[in-house]
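REQUEST
  id: r-88c1
  op: predict_structure
  target: EamA-like transporter family protein
  payload:
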Amino acid sequence: MSVPAAYLTVVLVWATTPIGIALSGATLHPMLAAGLRMLIAAALGLVLVQVLRIPMRWRGVELKSYAWALVGIFGALGLSYMAAQRVPSGLISVFFGLSPMLSAVLAQWLLAEPAMPLYKWGACLLAVAGLLVLFRDDVLLTADMVGGFVMLLVAVLLFSVSAVMVKRTDARLHPLAQTVGSLTLSLPLFALAWWLLDGQMPTLDWASPSPWAVLYLALFGSLLGFVSYYHVLQHLTPTTVALITLITPAFALYLGFWLNDEVLSPALLQGSGLIMMGLAVFFFGGYLRGRRRVVAPL
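RESPONSE
  id: r-88c1
  status: 200
  body:
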């Protein structure tokens, strides 16, 4: 796959994943939809691992790495599936755009990385201002939606902790092995969560979008998107890859509007805009500051 094609694939997959999560819960319980997605992706991943002869280890540091990744897969994605039944699907993409900032803050404490420059803290404040605008939106501020907001915030926190701790564990696993191991461990947890929260055997309604959304997310969201992302990460600079988190929220919001009749209130657009502006400053503020230093003497 060419790098431009892989980049476009990641943008499309990340932009469509939130609406896929929302649609997969149309006739299936969210935890069942998430579990089926992980089951299909894990099964296909295990086949790929065997075909490509990638070693899978289930002990020591490898198992620890799977377990930390599980915090993101079961914790973050499970909450995201539940939240998608309460909030506009595009907000999932907007909230997860906060994860690079939160990961950077956590990395200072957990990985002893250097202190962030002032402009990055300013970017974080912009993002917090965006969240405050969202929480003050009269259209969004219902009891169900507040619960969904809280779920998404916890999901982003778990996702960020997971990413930092996987890096700290440094098991040096092949990306596909890491994913397959973590997906496999998540299956009994999703099954238990579904049984406790619902436990009703569903009838797959192929006339509804749910089974198709599950298949799409398993094949594209969990496999093709994953492979494309790591392909892009190997060939492009981190700042170029970071642009994806700026592009996808806008697409995700409008896809929810077009495909799922979700409301795009002025406060929703303003709050999301502030969060994306904060992301832009976070990723590219240092570049702009460097340009000013070069231009200043002239």
